[in-house]
């Protein structure tokens, strides 16, 4: 029973954590009426909660593996009681900055669920499961929509204190319904870090999540105040539009995970970063509210799908170090939400508009698109190379003039020639002299006419011993149909021939 309830329970935990995480940014138009906040400090007030919410994801991901999600969620919610109450009685900018910093715990718990939940499901469902859990982002939309409505009627201080009740409820739910018997992974932290930090794919995933989740967080904290200040919208209207952005990005996250379970994840990311590039370019031209809405919703779609896809990829590449890898990648995503509001605020103060900031996002997204394409083809080459290295069949690749380019370990095992001895030489180093000139003429005619040749051939090992092999030669052509290489695959069948002779 407790196994089945972990996905809904942990998803609701994330909803609660994210509701708390964005309390200040959602209520800032109300808070600023009672607490004087200079325009240059607004970005800091909204961005500060992101700091701890990002940095803590690394240790929380590790601790979730070590101690289990139940304990980490309970302790996190208990710790959140203190900054929430402190903010409810705040009367200065310093109070908001200090309280906001520790609200970051609400965002940090993200790495707990993505580390814990895959333990309960088959790998073929990890994308969808992590997508469902990631839909807990909707907590930011709930606060962005509901908190201003409550604050308009009962005041922002009372609204903040309501979250103390919510936290108390989820402390109890985790105590009674959390899984005490969750599988623990007790690999030392430094061993896990050493196992991942040299892998370039980890840092590529960090960049990708920095953009997808970072843009989600950045727009969440930036939109409420921006829509009021730039377009003159009512505070509640701005909150509802922000909630709409969050809802689109959140509900598309499970779709992204589901798609990644069924299609190639890297191809999906190509579409994601293509969407980011176009949308950010549109926003950089400072459009009307209508076009701004189109650009923002395109960002929401790309961010939602991208977030789901990336957390299908992370456990695929880092199965044994899932806790620390999830923590590092999700931390970079959180930091992706910290810097953009500050940069946008700085650029606005210098230039009077946000165009340069959005143009920078479009160029970073374009660079990411190029990196995803490189990663896709690099993986295909890696698979081909792994097949060549591990197959028991001998393999030899020559250029179109017949000079050997590369051979595999099985080639060396059969022929005795090492890779450096064969490279640059002609395949004639294997020639036994048993075949006539007519044999080789027929071979080349078949290659030119059909693109392949297959048959038995006597060759010679390095030590001079003759052996019979079954050889298949394929002509490799470019897109224009021109032959660029030949690939030969063979197996030693001398023993089989001897048995036939007997």
From TrEMBL:
<feature type="domain" description="Major facilitator superfamily (MFS) profile">
    <location>
        <begin position="5"/>
        <end position="380"/>
    </location>
</feature>
<dbReference type="InterPro" id="IPR001610">
    <property type="entry name" value="PAC"/>
</dbReference>
<feature type="transmembrane region" description="Helical">
    <location>
        <begin position="291"/>
        <end position="311"/>
    </location>
</feature>
<feature type="domain" description="PAC">
    <location>
        <begin position="453"/>
        <end position="502"/>
    </location>
</feature>
<feature type="transmembrane region" description="Helical">
    <location>
        <begin position="243"/>
        <end position="260"/>
    </location>
</feature>
<dbReference type="InterPro" id="IPR044772">
    <property type="entry name" value="NO3_transporter"/>
</dbReference>
<dbReference type="InterPro" id="IPR000700">
    <property type="entry name" value="PAS-assoc_C"/>
</dbReference>
<dbReference type="InterPro" id="IPR011701">
    <property type="entry name" value="MFS"/>
</dbReference>
<feature type="transmembrane region" description="Helical">
    <location>
        <begin position="12"/>
        <end position="30"/>
    </location>
</feature>
<comment type="similarity">
    <text>Belongs to the major facilitator superfamily. Nitrate/nitrite porter (TC 2.A.1.8) family.</text>
</comment>
<feature type="transmembrane region" description="Helical">
    <location>
        <begin position="323"/>
        <end position="348"/>
    </location>
</feature>
<protein>
    <submittedName>
        <fullName>MFS transporter</fullName>
    </submittedName>
</protein>
<feature type="domain" description="PAS">
    <location>
        <begin position="386"/>
        <end position="426"/>
    </location>
</feature>
<feature type="transmembrane region" description="Helical">
    <location>
        <begin position="93"/>
        <end position="115"/>
    </location>
</feature>
<keyword id="KW-0812">Transmembrane</keyword>
<keyword id="KW-0534">Nitrate assimilation</keyword>
<keyword id="KW-0813">Transport</keyword>
<dbReference type="InterPro" id="IPR000014">
    <property type="entry name" value="PAS"/>
</dbReference>
<dbReference type="Pfam" id="PF13426">
    <property type="entry name" value="PAS_9"/>
</dbReference>
<dbReference type="Pfam" id="PF07690">
    <property type="entry name" value="MFS_1"/>
</dbReference>
<feature type="transmembrane region" description="Helical">
    <location>
        <begin position="267"/>
        <end position="285"/>
    </location>
</feature>
<dbReference type="InterPro" id="IPR020846">
    <property type="entry name" value="MFS_dom"/>
</dbReference>
<feature type="transmembrane region" description="Helical">
    <location>
        <begin position="127"/>
        <end position="150"/>
    </location>
</feature>
<keyword id="KW-1133">Transmembrane helix</keyword>
<keyword id="KW-0472">Membrane</keyword>
<dbReference type="InterPro" id="IPR036259">
    <property type="entry name" value="MFS_trans_sf"/>
</dbReference>
<feature type="transmembrane region" description="Helical">
    <location>
        <begin position="354"/>
        <end position="377"/>
    </location>
</feature>
<feature type="transmembrane region" description="Helical">
    <location>
        <begin position="202"/>
        <end position="223"/>
    </location>
</feature>
<dbReference type="InterPro" id="IPR035965">
    <property type="entry name" value="PAS-like_dom_sf"/>
</dbReference>
<feature type="transmembrane region" description="Helical">
    <location>
        <begin position="42"/>
        <end position="60"/>
    </location>
</feature>
<feature type="transmembrane region" description="Helical">
    <location>
        <begin position="156"/>
        <end position="177"/>
    </location>
</feature>
<feature type="transmembrane region" description="Helical">
    <location>
        <begin position="67"/>
        <end position="87"/>
    </location>
</feature>
């Amino acid at each position: 029973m407790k196994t089945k309830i972990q996905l809904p329970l942990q998803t609701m935990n994330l909803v609660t954590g994210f509701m708390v995480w964005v309390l200040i940014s959602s209520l800032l138009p109300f808070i600023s009426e009672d607490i004087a906040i200079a325009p240059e400090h607004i970005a800091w007030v909204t961005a500060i909660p992101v700091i701890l919410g990002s940095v803590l994801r690394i240790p929380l991901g590790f601790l979730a593996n070590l101690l289990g999600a139940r304990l980490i969620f309970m302790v996190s919610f208990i710790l959140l009681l203190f900054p929430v109450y402190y903010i409810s009685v705040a009367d200065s900018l310093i109070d908001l900055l200090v309280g906001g910093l520790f609200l970051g715990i609400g965002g940090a718990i993200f790495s707990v669920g993505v580390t814990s939940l895959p333990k309960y499901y088959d790998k073929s469902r990890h994308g969808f499961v992590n997508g469902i859990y990631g839909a807990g982002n909707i907590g930011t939309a709930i606060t962005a929509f509901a908190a201003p409505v409550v604050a308009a009627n009962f005041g922002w201080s009372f609204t903040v204190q309501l979250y103390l009740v919510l936290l108390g409820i989820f402390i109890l739910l985790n105590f009674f319904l959390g899984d005490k018997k969750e599988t623990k992974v007790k690999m030392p932290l430094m061993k896990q870090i050493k196992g991942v930090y040299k892998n370039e794919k980890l840092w590529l995933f960090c960049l990708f999540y920095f953009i997808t989740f970072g843009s989600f967080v950045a727009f969440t904290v930036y939109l409420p105040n921006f829509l009021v200040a730039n377009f003159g919208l009512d505070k509640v209207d701005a909150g509802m539009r922000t909630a709409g952005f969050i809802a689109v990005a959140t509900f598309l996250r499970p779709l992204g995970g589901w798609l990644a379970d069924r299609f190639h994840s890297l191809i999906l990311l190509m579409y994601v970063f293509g969407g980011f590039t176009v949308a950010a370019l549109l926003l950089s031209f400072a459009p009307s509210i209508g076009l701004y809405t189109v650009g923002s919703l395109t960002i929401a779609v790309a961010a939602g799908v991208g977030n789901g896809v990336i957390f299908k990829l992370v456990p695929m590449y880092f199965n044994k170090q899932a806790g620390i890898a999830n923590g590092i990648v999700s931390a970079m995503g959180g930091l992706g939400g910290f810097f953009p509001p500050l940069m946008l605020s700085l650029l606005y103060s210098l230039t009077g508009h946000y165009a340069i900031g959005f143009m920078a996002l479009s160029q970073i997204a374009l660079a990411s698109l190029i990196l995803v394409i490189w990663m896709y083809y690099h993986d295909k080459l890696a698979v081909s190379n792994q097949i060549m290295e591990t197959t028991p069949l001998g393999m030899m690749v020559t250029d179109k003039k017949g000079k050997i380019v590369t051979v595999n370990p099985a080639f060396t095992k059969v022929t005795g020639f090492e890779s450096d001895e064969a490279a640059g030489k002609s395949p004639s180093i294997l020639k036994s002299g048993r075949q006539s000139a007519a044999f080789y003429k027929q071979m080349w005619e078949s290659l030119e006419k059909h693109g392949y040749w297959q048959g038995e051939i006597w060759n010679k090992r390095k030590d001079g011993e003759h052996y019979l092999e079954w050889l298949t030669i394929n002509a490799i052509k470019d897109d224009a149909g021109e032959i660029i290489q030949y690939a030969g695959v063979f197996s030693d069948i001398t023993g089989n021939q001897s048995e036939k002779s007997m």
